[in-house]
Specification:
Elements: E1 2-4, H1 9-18, E2 23-25, H2 31-36, E3 44-47, E4 57-58, E5 61-63, H3 68-72, H4 77-84, H5 89-94, H6 97-103, H7 111-116, E6 120-125, E7 128-133, H8 134-137, E8 138-140, E9 143-144, E10 151-156, E11 164-170, E12 181-187, E13 193-198, E14 205-206, H9 208-215, H10 222-235, H11 246-266
Parallel strand pairs: 1-3, 2-3
Antiparallel strand pairs: 4-5, 5-10, 6-7, 6-10, 8-9, 11-12, 12-13, 13-14
Helix pairs in contact: 9-10, 10-11
């Protein structure tokens, strides 16, 4: 196995341009599991941990190499909440937001937050830089729009984030678990809600009908909240697998979204 360890962004882009078939290694929390279980055996790896530019966090721009350990100590409420659910302390110290996006798992813990706030993903290559909205970047199960010669360099958040925001997930254990269902709810100062869910479709999704319905209600009555939960349950696209059933995921998506919305209303 040939391993390159660039120390700067330009060096990393040059390495990838020369070998676009290379496997990119960020924190390694997913890739190393696959290698250890012989699911993958890459011949050429470009390790990105030493690329200092990817570790920069400047306001609303998070470098792809920012770890979940840093994020859980950061100022953004739902982002910190989701980071605390990522594996063990050792995993959070290694795992990065860019790696989480690059893996593109339907259960990626950062994805509901990024979808709820309409974040953009910055990609760079020797050809230049482009920025894609989250739903342009995540296109399927473990599939993204990243070209072979591109690096995920940053997550770019909008200029203003809703102050009221909550994240939670459910799984088969209470800790160190892949989400069965995850959700992020945001409510802005005008009372307009955004709802994004993970692990209930090929990619993270926004519950647009549920958003439209609850945002049209001036009074958030029990009946309105029940209808909100029902619409969320209808909009998700879950499957039955070894972690859960389609039926449970639908139910949990509605319940979790309602609970998070109610939390937002109380803050």
């Amino acid at each position: 196995m040939n391993i390159e360890r660039p120390s700067g962004l330009e060096e990393g882009l040059e390495a990838l341009a020369a070998s676009p078939e290379a496997t990119l290694l960020a924190g390694g929390t997913d890739l190393m599991v696959e290698i250890n279980y012989h699911a993958r055996r890459p011949e050429h790896v470009i390790a990105l941990r030493r690329v200092k530019e990817l570790k920069e966090w400047d306001g609303r721009r998070l470098g792809a190499g920012v770890t979940f350990r840093r994020i859980e100590q950061g100022p953004i409420r739902a982002l910190a909440q989701l980071a605390r659910t990522v594996g063990s302390p050792q995993i959070r110290a290694a795992g990065t937001i860019g790696g989480n996006l690059g893996t593109a798992s339907p259960a990626g813990d950062s994805h509901p937050f990024l979808a709820a706030c309409d974040a953009h993903i910055e990609l760079q290559s020797r050809r230049g830089t482009r920025t894609l909205r989250w739903d342009e970047f995540l296109v399927g199960v473990k599939r993204t729009s990243r070209q072979d010669d591109e690096l995920i360099t940053a997550v770019v958040l909008p200029e203003a984030l809703p102050r009221r925001q909550e994240f939670a997930k459910v799984g088969v254990r209470s800790a160190m678990v892949i989400a069965t269902v995850s959700a992020c709810v945001m409510v802005d100062d005008e009372g307009q809600a955004r709802v994004a869910l993970g692990a209930v479709g090929p990619t993270v999704l926004r519950a647009r009908r549920a958003e439209e319905m609850i945002n049209s209600e001036s009074e958030k009555s029990d009946a309105a909240l029940a209808e909100f939960a029902r619409l969320v349950s209808e909009e998700v696209k879950p499957i039955t697998d070894h972690r859960s059933t389609e039926e449970y995921r639908r139910h949990a998506a509605g319940v979790l979204s309602r609970r998070l919305f109610e939390r937002c209303l109380r803050t």
